[in-house]
Amino acid sequence: MDPHSLKKLNALRRERKAAILLTDLGDGRDRVVQEADTVAGPLGEAVGKAFRSGRSGAVEIEGRAFFLNVHLPAPRLVVVGAVHISQALAPMARIAGFDLTVIDPRTAFASPERFPGVTLHAEWPDEVLARDPLDAYTAVAALTHDPKIDDPALLAALGAGCFYIGALGSRKTHARRVERLLAAGVSEDRLARIEAPIGMNIGASSPAEIAVAVLGSVIAALRSRGLGAREQAA
């Protein structure tokens, strides 16, 4: 590996940014491709697919062989609200490979007894997220129904470009939420990124079923980054 490529790759990994080490197997030359970089043609399609899947491998493009070594940050799921849905979601998210954090300033809910083995913060979201900022490989699920707790987390998620943002509540509840966030200066285009009601529409009713629906939406968003609506539906 080119020493310059290694230095750049290590820097991107420290910053929790996705990268691919692209090696031409014909001449051995390599370069680092970031997720925001433009790579034209069929090679660009292969690079985009590798970023979405997270899988490394060799590809042949127009008679040339390349190896794509994919380096993705570990996906994180930040859950705001130490509620029953969160209790069901925690073990599911761990099995699916997500680093899970639960935030809730209400100490009666945010207790180690209710969330064993989970990274838990019995603090206000803005305090926690100031120390540990969100990023593009983080999903945020706001589940408290309390604007004082949910809204700051949603604002932080929108500002950080999180790959998934969802909020619990009915359409009526979300309409009031939208009014508050518009008043806080968030544009309608950015607010459209919030999935509310949260989770896939599978008719979920119990906390465990809602947790399944939420995790399904999070995984779908992670694996469809950068695709248009038509491609996502295909």
How would you characterize the overall build of this protein?
The chain is an alpha/beta fold and 234 residues long. It folds into two domains: 3-71, no CATH class; 76-223, 3-Layer(aba) Sandwich (Rossmann fold), CATH 3.40.50.720. Helices cover 41% and strands 21% of the residues. The chain is built from nine helices and ten strands. It has helices at 3-14, 41-53, 84-95, 125-131, 147-160, 171-183, 188-191, 207-223, 229-233, and strands at 19-24, 30-34, 57-61, 64-71, 76-80, 99-103, 119-121, 138-142, 164-167, 194-195. The chain has a six-stranded parallel beta sheet with strand order 7-6-5-8-9-10, with helices on both faces. Helix 5 (147-160) links the parallel strand 8 (138-142) and strand 9. The longest helix has 17 residues, at 207-223. The protein starts with a helix and ends with a helix. Residues 228-234 have low confidence and may be disordered.
